[in-house]
Specification:
Blueprint: H1 3-15, H2 18-25, H3 29-43, E1 48-51, E2 54-57, H4 59-82, E3 89-96, H5 98-103, H6 105-115, E4 118-125, H7 128-136, E5 142-146, E6 155-163, E7 165-170, E8 180-181, H8 183-186, E9 190-194, H9 199-207, E10 215-220, H10 223-231, E11 237-240, E12 254-259, E13 266-273, H11 280-294
Parallel strand pairs: 3-4, 3-5, 8-12, 9-10
Antiparallel strand pairs: 1-2, 5-13, 6-13, 7-11, 7-12
Helix pairs in contact: 1-2, 1-3, 1-4, 2-3
Length: 310
């Protein structure tokens, strides 16, 4: 057994499909299938139940998934111990929106604290409008935001991650078994509308490019409420891979399906006041994220589904 086995197993468990796991890992489906079979042989038990709907964890699979997370986390911790720590320091005031702070930043804040222990990051959670105002007023040095929502010409930004938006549906919903789904079909379903971080506005923008409208059953600022409603087959939604998790808090499965019409991605990145000359702390922060996401040698985790690449 090696880390490759664990990585492929976790990707399949989280995505629920070999095809999606292969896409996430940028490898062939046969490689994923072979690795899982090898792992099941080594462990002497089945980790998945195969069906037309995808790959569902067995009881043994659920237990092994927990162990796999622990192992991969320990490997990440070991890697941090061997990484060269920088003496670079300073203080930086960093603003972030709800989604970015909840689903993107924590891992990187941990890495930054290990790589640059003398760098102090002061965090502020605000709306996009308040962040833009704060950047222009010099209350914040930089911000981590949904760059796809920015529209202020006085700000500069650099996109680091483009997260695909897909339909979320209960595992028991017939739409979850389709390769691609049409907006006409989605419009027939009850729709759970997320409102945080301008999600509702963005949703109506891309729905406006179709001939249909969502049949909104609930508007909520809670991602977990959306997840639970969808998992319990109370409606469907369209959200990005970055906030997707395959299970609700009740342990019910959520499937994702591509839409026939390509929906604009949710983009995450850094923003700052136009013309700003970076000080040392700002340079350290921006260089870290560029190396993690922009350079070909990117070592960042796969944020789309919470899978850590080893």
């Amino acid at each position: 057994m090696n880390l490759r086995h664990l990585k492929y197993f976790v990707a399949t468990a989280e995505s629920g499909q070999v095809s999606r796991a292969a896409t996430v890992l940028s490898i062939s489906q046969s490689s994923v299938t072979s690795a899982i079979k090898e792992l099941e042989t080594i462990l002497g038990t089945e980790l998945f139940r195969r069906s037309a709907h995808g790959m569902e964890l067995t009881d043994a699979g659920r237990e092994f998934l927990s162990s796999s997370y622990e192992i991969l986390e320990k490997v990440e911790e070991a890697k941090k111990l061997t990484q060269k720590k920088s003496s670079a320091g300073g203080v930086i005031s960093l603003a972030a929106t709800y989604t970015v702070l909840g689903y993107f930043l924590p891992y990187h804040l941990d890495r930054l604290s290990h790589l640059h222990p003398n760098l102090e990051i002061k965090l502020h959670e605000l709306s996009r409008e308040s962040i833009e105002e704060g950047l222009l007023a010099n209350r914040f040095d930089m911000a981590m935001v949904l760059t796809s929502n920015l529209n202020n010409p006085e700000l500069e930004s650099e996109t680091l991650l483009r997260s695909t938006r897909r339909l979320w549906a209960s595992h028991s919903n017939p739409l979850s078994r389709q390769g691609k789904v049409h907006f006409e079909e989605i419009a027939e379903e009850d729709y759970i509308m997320l409102t945080i971080d301008e999600a509702a506005h963005t949703t109506m923008q891309y729905w406006g490019l179709t001939n249909f409208q969502p049949k909104v059953k609930l508007r909520t600022s809670s991602v977990e409420a959306v997840r639970s409603m969808v998992a319990n087959n109370q409606g469907v939604t369209i959200l990005s891979d970055m906030v997707y998790r395959p299970w609700s808090l009740e342990g019910k499965r959520i499937s994702t399906v591509q839409t026939e019409y390509e929906i604009p991605s949710m983009d995450v990145g850094l923003a700052w006041r136009r013309g700003l000359e970076f000080n040392h702390a700002q340079t350290v922060l921006s260089d870290y994220f560029r190396q993690a996401f922009v350079s070909p040698q990117s070592q960042a985790p796969n944020i789309r589904n919470g899978i850590v690449k080893i």
